[in-house]
Specification:
Aldehyde Oxidoreductase, domain 4, five-stranded mixed β-sheet, 19 helices, AldOxase/xan_DH_Mopterin-bd_sf, about 750 residues, 24 strands, disordered N terminus, alpha+beta
C-alpha cells in the first residue's frame, strides 16, 4: 500500500470524494451514537464528512492535528476531542493540537448546538481515529514484515514482534491517507483507556485566567482598524434623516457607511470609532412604531395569539381522563423573554484581501451556515468567503455573533483591504441579540382517591426557539436598501422540547400552541423550551406529591420506568441527605429530575434555599447527579453541570427582558441584572459513568431542573407556590403577603 503525497490544498481534499462538505445539523443524536457504538453504522457526522483526512493529520514533527467542525464555546470540548483522538491513536495527549470551525480546514458539522459536541462530533472523531489507526497499522505491517494484528502501539511508535519498529511520523510524515470511513470499525474498548475518563487539564483555561488572547475580542491583525454600528432604536424604526458629513471629518475616521438604515463607521482607533458612532447616533432622526404589546399583558397575548395547535404526545385517553378523577388540579407557569447576557459583547474581525477573498473571524456556533448567510448578504460566492472560529466571551446559543460578523463584513468593504474589528456596545447586545422566547405553560392533572395520577396534560404556548442563519437573514440585512428583509416565516422549533415528561402515565396528553410572530426577536438560548417545560413539569409534580401526601422523591420514583432516570434521582437525594432535612426557619429544599430532550443526559438536582423577609431568595447549595454515558473528561463534565446550574439560577431569580410599546428597554447590567459572584451557590456534582455507553449531550441538561428545584424549595420554605419567573424579591414578597 502507498500513501499519496501531500500534493493538494486541504480545502480541495475536503471537497473531494463523497461530497464531504455538506450542510449538517447532526440530528441523529443518541440513536446514531448508539448504533455506531455497536458497529452498526458510520456515525452521522462521519457519513457527511467521510474522508478520514477531514478529521486528523499525522504530522512530520511528531504531532497530530485534530480537526473538528464542532467549536469550543467554553464547554471544554477542545480538550475532550483531543483526548478522544489521543486514545484511539495511542499517542500522548500532549502531541495533539485541535483546529475547530474553519471553512477551509475542518469538516462541516453544522452548528455546535443541541448538546451535540461529544454525542455527534466526538463519536464521529472516535470512529475516524480508530479507522485511521487501522489504515496506519496496515501500512506499518508491510514495512515491518509483520501481521497488522500482531503490532502494538505506544505513543505513536509501532512495534512488531520481531523487534522492528516505526513511528507514525516516519511512516506518514504529513501525507494524506485518502481513505473514506467504512462501517464495522471497533474503537478501543473502555477497559484499555488511558486518557479518556481522566480529568486532563483543559487546554483553554491558561489564557483565560492569565489575560492571554483567549477570545475573538482579543484579536489583532496587522493594519487593523475599528468599526462601530448605529442600530435603530427599535425594530421597524424609520430613518427620517441623517447628517454623515460632520462625522466623516472627525479625528481618525476612515469611512462613514450608510446603506438604507444600516449605519456604521470605521476609524483608526477604537475610541475614535466610539466617538464617531455616538456622533452619528446623535445625527440620526428616527420614527418608532408602537409594535409591541404591553409587557403586563404578555402572557395573555401569548394565550390568545393565533396559534398552530398540534398534539405532541398522547397516551391512553389523554387529557380526557382527568375529568373522571377524584381530585383535579391545574396550574399556569410563566417564563419571560430572557437574554444571553454574555460578559463580552459580540465581536468579529473581517478582512477582504487584494483578490477579493473575505475572511471573517467569528464566535459563531456554525461557521458553514454563517458562510452561506454572508454569501447572501454580500452577494459573494461562498468560495470567496472563509469563516474561522474564535471563541467568544460567553456563548449560550444564537446570540449576536453571526450578526456582528455580517456587519464587520459590510464595513470591511469600506476599509481598503485593512482588517476591521467590530465589537458591539453593551446596549447593542442587550437590545438587538435574539432572546429566549417567552412561554406560557398550562398544566392539569387528576388524582384518584389513593393519590395516584390518573390523567396528565401539558399545554405549551411559545414562539420559535430557532432563527439561526440561514433560517432567517442576518440582522444587517434588515436595514440594507438592497435587501430590507426583517423576517422569514419562522419554524416550529424547540418550544415543546421536554414538554413530554420522563414519567410513565397511563393517560397523558401534550399539546403545542405555536405562534409564528414574536414581537421581540427570538432564537436559540441554552436548552430552548426545556427550561420552561421542565420548570412546569417538575414544579407541578411536586405539587401533586404534596396533594397526595407523598414524599416528592418517592412520588416521582413511582412513575419512572427508566432505571437511569431513577438512578440520578436517588443519587442526588442521597447526596443531599434527603429525608434528614430540617434546615431551619425560612429555609427549604426542592428537587427536580429530567432527561434532556428525552434522549440525552440525565440530571437530577436538589437545592437548598433561604428566603429572606424582604423576599430575596438565596440558593445556598445545590446537589446534582448526572449520567452522560461514557465520560471523557470528568472535571470538564462537572464544569458543564455546575455552569448550567449557576446560569439557570440567574435566570430563575433575576432575568427578564423589559420592553415598552416601542422598544426593548434594556441597555446595561443595572436594567438587566445577572447573578453576581457573591450570590453563586455551592454546586456539588456526582457523575455516574457508563463505560462503553454512547456519549450523551450534557451542555444543557441542568438548565431545566434548576428553576423547578428552586421553586419547590421556596415552597418548602414558605408554603407558597410561585409559578412565574423570575423569583425577584418584589414578586416573592408580594406572594408572601398574599398579593
Amino acid at each position: 500500500m502507498t500513501v499519496p503525497d501531500l500534493d493538494v490544498e486541504r480545502r480541495d481534499l475536503l471537497k473531494g470524494a463523497g461530497g464531504a462538505l455538506v450542510m449538517g445539523f447532526s440530528l441523529g443524536g443518541a440513536a446514531e451514537s448508539a448504533a455506531a457504538a455497536e458497529g452498526e453504522a458510520v456515525p452521522a457526522d462521519l457519513q457527511s464528512n467521510p474522508q478520514l483526512d477531514s478529521w486528523l493529520s499525522i504530522n512530520a514533527d511528531g504531532t497530530v492535528t485534530v480537526f473538528s467542525g464542532k467549536v469550543p464555546l467554553g464547554q471544554g470540548n477542545a480538550t475532550a476531542f483531543s483526548q478522544i483522538a489521543a486514545e484511539e491513536l495511542d499517542v500522548d495527549f500532549s502531541r495533539t493540537d485541535l483546529v475547530a470551525g474553519d471553512t477551509e480546514r475542518t469538516p462541516n458539522e453544522g452548528y455546535t448546538a443541541g448538546s451535540s459536541s461529544l454525542e455527534a462530533g466526538g463519536t464521529a472523531l472516535r470512529y475516524a481515529a480508530a479507522q485511521a489507526q487501522g489504515v496506519i497499522l496496515e501500512l506499518a505491517a508491510t514495512r515491518l514484515g509483520a501481521n497488522a494484528g500482531d503490532l502494538t502501539v505506544e505513543d505513536g511508535t509501532i512495534n512488531a514482534p520481531n523487534g522492528a519498529s516505526i513511528t507514525y511520523w516516519d511512516l506518514l510524515g504529513g501525507r494524506y491517507l485518502k481513505r473514506q470511513a467504512q462501517p464495522g470499525v471497533q474503537p478501543e474498548p473502555p477497559n484499555e483507556y488511558d486518557t479518556v475518563g481522566e480529568s486532563v487539564e483543559r487546554i483553554d483555561i491558561p489564557d483565560k485566567v492569565t489575560g492571554g488572547k483567549a477570545y475573538v475580542q482579543d484579536m489583532e491583525r496587522p493594519g487593523m482598524v475599528h468599526g462601530r454600528v448605529v442600530h435603530p432604536p427599535s425594530y421597524g424604526a424609520s430613518l427620517n434623516s441623517i447628517d454623515t458629513e460632520s462625522v466623516a471629518s472627525m479625528p481618525g475616521v476612515v469611512e462613514v457607511v450608510r446603506d438604507g438604515r444600516f449605519l456604521g463607521v470605521v476609524a483608526e482607533k477604537e475610541h475614535q470609532a466610539i466617538n464617531a458612532m455616538e456622533a452619528l447616533d446623535e445625527a440620526a432622526e428616527w420614527s418608532l412604531p408602537a409594535n409591541f404589546p404591553d409587557q403586563d399583558d404578555l402572557y395573555d397575548y401569548l394565550e390568545r395569539g393565533d396559534a398552530d395547535v398540534s398534539t405532541v404526545d398522547k397516551q391512553g385517553q389523554g387529557a380526557a381522563a382527568i375529568e373522571g378523577a377524584a381530585e383535579t388540579y391545574e396550574a399556569t407557569y410563566k417564563r419571560p423573554y430572557t437574554m444571553h447576557g454574555s460578559i463580552g459583547p459580540s465581536c468579529a474581525v473581517a478582512e477582504i484581501d487584494g483578490q477579493g477573498q473575505l475572511t471573517v473571524w467569528t464566535h459563531s456556533q456554525g461557521v458553514f451556515p454563517l458562510r452561506e448567510s454572508l454569501s447572501n448578504l454580500m452577494n459573494k460566492p461562498t468560495e470567496e468567503i472563509r469563516c474561522v472560529h474564535r471563541e467568544g466571551a460567553g456563548c449560550y446559543g444564537h446570540n449576536g455573533a453571526d450578526d456582528v460578523a455580517g456587519e464587520a463584513a459590510l464595513l470591511s468593504d469600506a476599509a481598503d483591504g485593512r482588517p476591521v474589528r467590530l465589537q458591539w456596545m453593551r446596549e447593542d447586545a442587550h437590545k438587538w441579540e435574539p432572546f429566549g422566547s417567552a412561554m406560557l405553560l398550562k398544566k392539569r392533572a387528576g388524582l384518584d382517591a389513593n393519590g395516584n395520577i390518573v390523567g396528565w396534560s401539558h399545554d405549551v404556548h411559545s414562539y420559535t426557539h430557532a432563527t439561526r442563519p440561514p433560517l432567517e437573514p442576518l440582522l444587517p440585512a434588515w436595514f440594507l436598501d438592497s435587501q430590507n428583509e426583517e423576517h422569514s416565516p419562522t419554524l416550529n422549533i424547540g418550544g415543546y422540547r421536554d414538554a413530554v415528561s420522563d414519567y410513565s402515565f397511563e393517560h397523558s396528553e401534550v399539546t403545542n400552541h405555536f405562534l409564528e410572530n414574536s414581537p421581540l426577536r427570538v432564537s436559540a438560548l441554552r436548552s430552548l423550551g426545556s427550561f420552561g417545560n421542565t420548570f412546569a413539569n417538575e414544579s407541578f409534580m411536586s405539587q401533586l406529591a404534596h396533594e397526595a401526601g407523598r414524599d416528592p422523591v418517592d412520588f416521582r420514583l413511582d412513575y419512572i420506568e427508566d432505571a437511569r432516570t431513577a438512578a440520578v434521582l436517588q443519587r442526588a437525594a442521597n447526596m443531599a441527605g434527603w429525608g434528614d432535612d430540617d434546615l431551619g426557619e425560612n429555609r427549604g429544599r426542592g428537587v427536580a429530575v429530567n432527561r434532556y430532550e428525552n434522549a440525552k443526559a440525565y440530571t437530577a438536582l436538589v437545592v437548598d434555599v433561604t428566603v429572606a423577609d424582604d423576599g430575596t431568595v438565596s440558593v445556598d447549595r445545590a446537589y446534582a447527579a448526572d449520567d452522560s454515558g461514557q465520560i471523557v473528561n470528568p472535571d470538564g463534565l462537572k464544569n458543564q453541570i455546575q455552569g448550567g446550574v449557576v446560569q439557570a439560577t440567574s435566570w430563575t431569580l433575576k432575568e427578564d427582558v423589559d420592553f415598552t410599546n416601542t422598544e426593548v428597554d434594556e441597555q446595561d447590567w443595572q436594567s438587566y441584572p445577572i447573578l453576581t459572584f457573591t450570590e453563586m451557590p455551592e454546586v456539588d456534582v456526582e457523575l455516574i459513568d457508563r463505560p462503553g455507553k454512547p456519549y450523551l449531550g450534557s451542555g444543557e441538561t441542568s438548565q431545566g431542573v434548576t428553576p423547578a428545584a428552586i421553586a419547590n424549595a421556596v415552597y418548602d420554605a414558605t408554603g407558597i407556590r410561585f409559578h412565574e419567573l423570575p423569583l425577584t424579591p418584589e414578586r416573592v414578597k408580594a406572594g408572601l403577603s398574599g398579593e
